[in-house]
User: Fold this.
Amino acid sequence: MTQDIFKSGLAREITDGPTFDAAQAQPGEVIQTGEAIDPGEISKAPRRRRDSGPTPAKKARVADLEGRLERLDGTQTTDIGNLEAQVAALQKQRSVLEDDYQAERRDLVALLKAARAWR
Assistant:
């Protein structure tokens, strides 16, 4: 059941009567009753078949999905590693460019200062 039948009023707790006696005689069992059932003919609810486990097809599907997930995780790890290596290379290249820029700028500022000194 997915709903609370006691809360909705479809079921109620009983403390006496033939249904109560039948429930007391078979503790732990589901007792099936209803308006269409004579309380004198109360019986156990039919037992559901137990699930015998996943079918071979379901097991194969799970194994396939687990393999795909593992490969996806591996690809992601590799791709992130490659990107991190590219970022490191770009950062190094940027550092070299910054150093070259600063050195050339210093030289040009010094030349400009010397050129303005004639005034």
Notes: The two ends are 98 Å apart (CA to CA). The longest strand covers residues 31-32. The chain has three helices and two strands. The chain has a mean pLDDT of 85.
